[in-house]
Structure formats: C-alpha cells, structure tokens
Amino acid sequence: MAPQIPPAPPTGPSRPGASEENLPMPSRNPLPLSASQEAQVREVFNARVRNLCADEIKAFAECARTRTFTIPFACRALSHAMNSCMLSHATPDEHDRAREDWFAQRQMRFREREKKERRKMEQEKFHREWWGLPERDPEDVKRELEKLALKERIGGGYGRSRRGEEQEVRERGEDGKT
C-alpha cells in the first residue's frame, strides 16, 4: 500500500478577492497612456536620472574624451561609478515621479500646442493675403478651431466633461449646422 500524502495547506486566501487587499498598488499612476505618451514619460525619467548622476557622467566623459579603444581599461572605475549611480536612481518610484511630472506638465503642453497652431493659422492667412491666394473655407477654419479646443487624450478617451462636447462637434459636423 502506498504511503498517504497529507493534503497541502491552501496557499491562497479562503475568500475570493482577499489577495488584492494585501497587495500593494504597482504604480501610483495606473492610467494607461499611448505609446508616444509613454515615450515622453521615459524621456522625462531618463532626464531626471541623468540630472541626478550628472557629476559621475561628467567625470566619465572627461576621462573618455581623449581616448579611443582604451576607454574600457582607463575609465573602468568611472564607468562603474556612473552605471551604479544610474542603476540606483532608476527605480519604479523615480519612474512614478517622472510620470507625475509629465501629468503636471499637461497644461503647459496644451497651451504650447494651442499657441503653435494659432501661429500657424495666422502665418497661413498672411501667406494667402501676401500672394493673393483665395481665403480658406470658413467651415474648415471653424473645424480646426474646434479641434484645437479638444484636450489631449489620456487613457484612450477624453475626460468626462469633453465627451458631450465632442459628440456635439461630431453632430454639428455631420449635419452641417452651426
């Protein structure tokens, strides 16, 4: 007769959903971003880490400036110091701070984009006047201004207050009424 193996104690919680209560939230900013927005967050993150390790990076660059193939040998200690500094500062917490900075800069980016688009429209208008070209269709200009008023999309959609306005814009565009 085969020896009896005692049943293993349960590894999970006895009630469903209890494991989620004990697990920490992986990020303080769980909102999904598009690939280009995540790339912008990575740029902010990398810039923050480079700023924190600026002295080590500068020391390594000074060592490597006059060398070619001897860099790995002559600057090994500086290279290790630079890499260890960057690894010590490249943490999930630092990434979360970079993401928070990116969200804090949303309004500034929106104003810059709006200013740039308005300047572009003014330049195009001047160009048309200067060369005697016909003016643009007022409906096209109005559509561009409405599009410019829409906020940046975060997490796959506009904010709650913008959804109704976006629907109104679509309906007016389809009906052709103003």
UniProtKB/TrEMBL annotation:
- List compositional bias (Pro residues) regions by residue number: 1-13
Q: Give the record's keywords alphabetically.
A: Chaperone, Disulfide bond, Membrane, Mitochondrion, Mitochondrion inner membrane
Where composition is biased (Basic and acidic residues), the residues are 162-178
TM region positions: none
For this protein, the record's InterPro entries field holds: Cyt_c_biogenesis_Cmc1-like
Q: One Pfam family this chain carries?
A: Cmc1
GO cellular component terms, semicolon-separated: mitochondrial inner membrane
Q: Indicate where this protein is primarily found.
A: mitochondrion
**From which domain of life does this come?**
Eukaryota
Which compartment or compartments is the protein found in?
A: Mitochondrion inner membrane
Region listing for Disordered, in residue ranges: 1-35, 156-178
Q: What does this protein do?
A: Required for mitochondrial cytochrome c oxidase (COX) assembly and respiration.
Q: Which family does it belong to?
A: Belongs to the CMC family.
Protein name as annotated: COX assembly mitochondrial protein
User: What taxonomic ancestry is recorded?
Assistant: Eukaryota, Fungi, Dikarya, Ascomycota, Pezizomycotina
